[in-house]
Every structure is written in C-alpha cells, then in structure tokens.
Input
Amino acid sequence: VHETYANSEAVLAHVTGVASRTILPKVFSVSRISKFDVYGNPSEELQKVLTSFSPRPHTYNLFAGFNR
Output
C-alpha cells in the first residue's frame, strides 16, 4: 500500500480517524506490516505517534541542494 499526505496534520487526521479505529484492527487481525517508510519531514507530534508503530518506520528526510 502506498499512501501520500499533504503534511503531518493530514497523517495525524488519518491515523486518528474512524477507519483507522474501526477497520484497520480487523485488517491487522489477518495481516501485518512488514515495512514502513516515511518520506518527508514529519512534525514532532507525528514522530511521537509513529514510534508506537510496529515495525517502526524508517524516515527519509527531504533536503534541498546538492549532495556529492
């Protein structure tokens, strides 16, 4: 599954929403997350929420400029 959000607040709204509270527990009773990647610069609040996930997500921060 690939999901895209505009910002950290949108992710927080998703993970605290009705679907996450009602449907996802049923999905996770028959499946599991094997890898979780976050691309971007999550807010401190979102980082705290993400640390409760299993497996813990690997975060790839965005940067500007060039890297040699």
The longest strand covers residues 37-39.
